[in-house]
Automatic annotation (TrEMBL):
Molecular function as annotated in GO: methyltransferase activity
Organism: Niallia oryzisoli
Enzyme class, UniProt record, top EC level: transferase
One Pfam match: LCM
Listed GO biological process terms: methylation
Recorded superkingdom: Bacteria
Keywords: Methyltransferase, Transferase
Keyword Methyltransferase: yes
Enzyme Commission number: 2.1.1.-
Name of the protein this chain belongs to: Class I SAM-dependent methyltransferase
Amino acid sequence: MDLTKNQNIHLTEEKETLLITLQAKAIDSRSKHSILHDKKALEILHLIDYDFEKVNHFGNEIMVIRAKQLDTWLQEFIKKYPNATVLNLGCGLDTRIARINPPSTVNWFDVDFPEVIQLRKSFF
């Protein structure tokens, strides 16, 4: 799938929820007081043609705060265990690896449904 231009995304069931967290992180990155500073999420969001009104009623702030806490815990863990293996289950379009920027000694695996991983490959 070539996503150099806006493409309509068709995800079903639980797979579609990845757009909720993506939107929350993108909205945060536009904030004057951004928590995550996740410009990659905003970049990806701009490439997707999707009716985000369907997911606007979720608590974006809570998702962003949760992501920040997970980032902090993971950074602390990697500092303590620099040869760790990270398994990001249900990764969706998560950009955590870009925010964390782990050392090359860390093995990182983003895992999700095959169609989500295929979509992910369009952006990373």
